[in-house]
Write a structure and sequence with these properties.
Helix content: over 70%
Number of helices: 10
Largest sheet: none
Radius of gyration: 20 Å
CATH class of one domain: Mainly Alpha
CATH architecture of one domain: Orthogonal Bundle
CATH superfamily of one domain: Tetracycline Repressor, domain 2
CATH topology of one domain: Tetracycline Repressor, domain 2
């Protein structure tokens, strides 16, 4: 998964995969059939582990405004850690590289995008219902945030700085306006005790 994530499907050679996994060509064929099926298994694992972990707070029944903000703050913290090369999301990379030509990849990408939109929608609907944010269209804003999320990965891969990414996130989140009641409760929660 790491090799495909770093180098992409086309640039990851079969020999590099065998060396990384420490197995023979026949073992790979016996277990997966071919490189493409191994790639699909890696996409499934990525979605199951990494993507599910990232979306779990947004998918929680009580998720709201804080979880939306926390999601993007978590991305910022992960991106601030040193890495060999900036990486986009494996799903985003797969969409760009193979999504138009491979129906199995396209199906996985679409399912993940839908799940991401539904996670944002869940948190946004709760935030509106609880009066944390001003009324908004949860469907439209969840699509907007999902598109922003994928765009951030591409920008990072292209060399955008953390400051530039932060600016893009700030603009993206500006469509979600906290209510005065939320601001007051936040101020009260952090006010020093007398």
């Amino acid at each position: 998964m790491e090799l495909f994530w770093r180098d992409g499907y086309a640039s990851t050679s079969l020999q590099a995969l065998l060396d990384c996994m420490g197995i023979s060509r026949q073992s790979l064929y016996n277990a997966f059939g071919d490189k493409r099926n191994l790639y699909l298994a890696c996409l499934d694992r990525y979605i199951e582990r990494r993507a599910s972990g990232m979306l779990s707070q947004l998918e929680a029944p009580d998720a709201g405004y804080a979880e939306v903000i926390g999601f993007f703050d978590g991305l910022r913290q992960r991106e601030a850690k040193p890495a060999e090369t900036p990486r986009t999301c494996l799903i985003g990379r797969s969409c760009v590289e193979l999504g138009a030509d491979d129906p199995d990849v396209a199906e996985r990408v679409q399912a993940h995008m839908y799940r991401t939109m539904q996670a944002f929608r869940n948190a946004l609907k709760n935030a509106v219902a609880r009066g944390e944010v001003e009324p908004l269209d949860p469907d439209a804003v969840s699509r907007h945030l999902t598109a922003t999320l994928q765009g951030l990965g591409m920008m990072r891969r292209a060399g955008a700085t953390l400051e530039e990414l932060g600016g893009a996130v700030g603009v993206a989140l500006s469509v979600i306006r906290p209510t005065a009641a939320l601001a007051e409760s936040t101020d009260a929660a952090v006010a020093p005790a007398e």
